[in-house]
């Protein structure tokens, strides 16, 4: 599908290609395909642009990672190969040279912890990574203090810094819930319950604080609670986490994660096969992109003063760039590719927010395009038929 999406030829690839693992619906893991779509191909394309200072930032961040983070050489090379630091260059194209350097260092550190929390590690190791995040701002953490100090020196306000550190602590606490679900010690009872937790376990509030810093957005705290702003953030969160959950499932299953995944929860609750569930989640992601676009269009009708609407427009623009970057990076990184086929699916949802994850921002708001009249199990819109 995507010429730049090179498969990571590794032991995981060989395991996938030879896998006889049966999933809960009786299908074989090796028979699954991963749905992908391209948001730059929509009628109103999402913006995709790489930060101009990416190359220099990655050169410095590769050295920083080697010097600051203790890990095996193979792990170090994997993080570089997966372009983990480069993720921020796609989602924050407007960052300055100094900002993108600090962001790249931050993302290497955060993804390293995320791998410890999410991949096939002992529960104690995963929970230790959660605990480390939960102490951010209250204890000395050498790598964190290094890049966070540079962020502050580059103009991150105290209010923005507080939002950033608070969001990191929430990231650790919500990830702890996911670790418990993975270990069979807890469970998510509903789609909405899973999504609510995942909005923080996917670190989305962390990324929002960084977006506000980079785009020089200064919203008063009460304005973040406004229905329009909440829906903008939730649409961005839901796209990012759903597209990740659909794209990473096969790799995570090979890494030993079977319990606590959204794929399993939705499959069992909706009575769908694993493959149909992956398509359903990809469409749910597209519906979130639709809602981000539609909510951006109603900012001027939300009744707020013009200076506040200007700030929200800038924030919505930053979130659209973030989603465009998430989509592009996800389609091109080798992080989740283990030899499986990739299948094109629509970048615009044919069903809409059928799970009611994002309430209307304005009473009586009608945001769904006329073409979105299909039902989630209606064969007329299924992309694989």
TrEMBL record:
EC assignment: 4.2.3.-
Segments of this protein annotated with the region Disordered: 359-385
Bias type Basic and acidic residues, positions: 376-385
InterPro entries cross-referenced by the UniProt entry: Isoprenoid_synthase_dom_sf, Terpene_cyclase-like_2
A GO term, aspect molecular function: terpene synthase activity
SUPFAM superfamilies referenced in this protein's UniProt entry, alphabetically: Terpenoid synthases
Key words, A-Z: Lyase, Magnesium, Metal-binding
Enzyme class: lyase
Cofactor: Mg(2+)
Family under the similarity heading: Belongs to the terpene synthase family.
Protein name: Terpene synthase
Protein species of origin: Actinomadura rubrisoli
């Amino acid at each position: 599908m995507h010429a730049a999406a090179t498969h990571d030829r590794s032991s995981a690839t060989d395991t996938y290609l030879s896998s006889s693992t049966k999933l809960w619906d009786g299908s074989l893991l090796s028979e699954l395909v991963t749905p992908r779509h391209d948001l730059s191909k929509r009628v109103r394309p999402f913006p995709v642009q790489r930060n101009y200072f990416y190359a220099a930032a990655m050169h410095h961040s590769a050295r920083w990672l080697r010097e600051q983070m203790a890990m095996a050489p193979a792990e170090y090379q994997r993080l570089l190969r997966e372009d983990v630091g480069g993720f921020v260059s796609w989602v924050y194209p407007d960052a300055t040279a100094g900002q993108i350097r600090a962001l790249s260092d931050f993302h290497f550190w955060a993804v390293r912890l995320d791998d410890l929390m999410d991949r096939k590690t002992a529960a104690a190791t995963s929970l230790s990574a959660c605990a480390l995040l939960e102490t951010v701002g209250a204890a000395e953490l050498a790598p964190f203090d290094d890049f966070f100090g540079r962020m502050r020196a580059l103009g991150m306000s105290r209010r923005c810094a507080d939002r950033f550190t608070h969001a990191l602590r929430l990231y650790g606490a919500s990830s702890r819930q996911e670790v418990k679900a993975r270990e069979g010690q807890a469970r998510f009872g509903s789609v909405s319950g899973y999504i609510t937790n995942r909005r923080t376990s996917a670190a989305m509030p962390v990324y929002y604080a960084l977006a506000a810093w980079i785009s020089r957005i200064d919203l008063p705290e009460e304005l973040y609670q406004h229905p329009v702003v909440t829906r903008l953030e939730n649409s961005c969160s839901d796209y990012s986490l759903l597209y990740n959950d659909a794209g990473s499932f096969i790799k995570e299953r090979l890494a030993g994660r079977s319990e606590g995944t959204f794929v399993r929860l939705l499959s069992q609750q909706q009575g769908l096969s694993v493959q149909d569930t992956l398509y359903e989640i990809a469409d749910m992601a597209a519906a979130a992109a639709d809602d981000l676009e539609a909510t951006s269009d109603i900012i001027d009708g939300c009744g707020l003063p013009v200076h506040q609407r200007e700030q929200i427009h800038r924030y919505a623009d930053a979130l659209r760039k973030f989603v465009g970057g998430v989509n592009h990076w996800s389609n091109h990184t080798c992080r989740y590719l283990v030899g499986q086929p990739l299948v094109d699916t629509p970048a615009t949802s044919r069903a809409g927010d059928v799970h009611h994850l994002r309430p209307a921002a304005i009473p009586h708001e009608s945001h769904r395009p006329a073409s979105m009249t299909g039902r989630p199990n209606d064969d007329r819109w299924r992309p694989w038929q």
